[in-house]
Input
Amino acid sequence: MRKEQHRGILPFPLKQYGKSTLGAPLLYAPCKEKCTLLVIAGIHGEEPETTFLLSRILRYFAEPLQSVAFILCANPDGAALGTRGNSNGVDLNRNFPTANWSTKTTLSKATLESKRITELSPGKTPASEAETKSLIKLIGKLQPAEILSIHSPLACVEAPAITPLAHFLTEISETPYKKDIGYPTPGSLGTWCKENSVHCITWELPRLAPEILAQKFARKVAGYLLEKGN
Ligand SMILES: [Zn+2]
Output
């Protein structure tokens, strides 16, 4: 594994898979061969540390990996605005076309201990948002067996099964494994993945400053992905 490179640039060019509601390019780092894992950060715009950490992970690679693709920021408008949802106020992680999708306002919580009080729209219809549509299209094209979706700051690893990657993440982040989050999440990427036979791991980072997250995890995750995804 090479040393972490210049902070100012990514080691290889990204590709575009669509456009956000406000017209920002939706970008991903493709893999060289068949994609087995897609890593996604920044689907919630107020979790920019997920994008920061993933960017730091990518700096360890000299070129795209054989079988792992990456989305640094699935919600660039939300990231630019500092909002959880996109520029329409839609929680993209409740906008996926699942059997239990509903028009009900979605509630989320800021910490594991707090109540779910943050209100957001799940969208007018399933997959109403440009960001959701493009992501579904990209997943269809790449056909990964597993998706790793990075969130913060609930400090847990949630996945239907403890796959080697899920196990590795619980080990390095010293956080609990959860089979599910404890309440229904209609329209979430995780629920959509279940219905479409993709194993989805939600990695909720601990509540730490971006620089600390990078120090703790970037090198370890990069090493794991280089070994398994190359
Ligand atoms: Zn989140």
Summary: Helices lie at 48-58, 76-81, 130-142, 164-173, 189-195, 210-228. Strands lie at 15-19, 25-28, 37-40, 68-71, 106-108, 118-120, 146-151, 156-158, 177-178, 199-204.
